[in-house]
Specification:
With 305 residues, the protein is an alpha/beta fold. Helix content is 13%, strand content 21%. The protein has helices at residues 17-32, 54-67, 280-283, 286-291; strands at residues 51-52, 86-91, 96-105, 109-111, 124-128, 131-133, 148-152, 172-176, 196-198, 205-206, 220-222, 227-231, 242-244, 249-252, 275-276, 303-304. Strands 1, 2, 3, 5, 7, 8, 9, 11 and 13 form a nine-stranded mixed sheet that branches. The longest helix has 16 residues, at 17-32.
Length: 305
């Protein structure tokens, strides 16, 4: 708190008229504060020093305790040692620091704690190149601020939760080289901000959901090396999109995709189960002449005639 200014006694220099005017103003101002005692000084309200949100900090320490060290020097009681793998921002409304980024890359083992879904201000979740297992939290949809979700080259299993469709701010969804074995949830079609979708090298089954047609800003989809089957839904394709779906079990690609008047590019479907006789009109299109190699090299005993 500010202390009152005390003018020295004794041999003081006589104040100039300007100083007298300023001093008089101060006396008048203090005299007008009738609610204050002689020993009180009014100061602006200063907010308390912001702290890391208690719930967030408990979750981060739990993640560390379950999965192992983030690296040398980690100390649960010293947040300055977390900075290499944990990022946070100040929430001005609550005057608390909230965890915005969690990167667990290159080390760690054990089952991923489901409590990660309670880090409600998280914007980046990146879990790659380690031995972390378990399942994607079923309540992952609670992370409504999430912009990037990456799970790569780790032995996670189970399914992609339907709640993932609640991630309305997500622009990159990358789940690759895992043991996840569910179908692709149609709820991904609700993620209007999605720009890149990579679900390659998993154990995904079933058909490609037609609901993906609702994701208008996506420019890259990679579903190669799974066990996807059935008809390829050409209605999900749009101009400027590249779609890789190699080494699956797709059995049908409608020939309409080869029409030159359709602006969408055909998907890359090497290593699937396409069969049948290619109509003569298809062979005459510019698309076929330029891009027919997209459907070459089908599985053994399959292929176009």
């Amino acid at each position: 708190m500010k202390k009152k200014k005390v003018f020295p006694k004794g041999n003081c220099i006589s104040p100039s008229p300007v100083r007298l005017t300023f001093l008089s103003f101060c006396i008048m101002l203090l005299g007008g504060l009738s609610s204050c005692s002689d020993n009180e000084i009014i100061s602006p309200s200063i907010p308390p020093h912001p702290r890391l949100n208690k719930s967030d900090s408990l979750i981060i320490t739990k993640v560390h305790d379950v999965l192992g060290s983030y690296g040398d020097g980690w100390n649960n009681a010293d947040t300055s040692t977390w900075k290499l793998h944990v990022g946070w921002d100040l929430d001005k409304e609550t005057n608390e620091y909230r965890v915005k980024e969690l990167v667990y890359s290159g080390s760690g083992s054990g089952k991923l704690p489901q409590d990660i879904a309670k880090l409600t201000k998280l914007r980046i979740l990146w879990i790659t190149d380690n031995n972390i297992s378990g399942t994607i939290p079923k309540d992952i949809g609670n992370l409504t601020d999430l912009e990037l979700l990456g799970i790569y080259q780790c032995p996670m299993y189970g399914e992609i939760p339907k709640s993932i469709g609640k991630l309305k701010k997500l622009h990159t969804l990358w789940i690759s080289k895992t043991n996840i074995s569910s179908s692709i949830p149609k709820e991904i079609g609700k993620m209007n901000t999605l720009e890149k979708l990579d679900l390659s090298d998993n154990q995904l089954t079933g058909e490609i959901p037609t609901e993906l047609k609702n994701v208008q800003h996506i420019n890259s989809i990679e579903l190669s090396r799974n066990h996807l089957s059935g008809r390829f839904p050409i209605e999900i394709l749009h101009p400027n999109m590249i779609f890789y779906c190699e080494n699956n079990d797709i059995t049908e690609l409608p020939f309409d995709i080869w029409k030159d008047e359709l602006p969408a590019c055909p998907p890359v479907l090497h290593g699937n189960r396409l069969t049948g006789i290619v109509p003569e009109w298809v062979k005459e299109t510019k698309k076929w002449k330029k891009l027919s190699y997209y459907v070459d090299n089908q599985q053994q005993d399959y292929g176009y005639k």
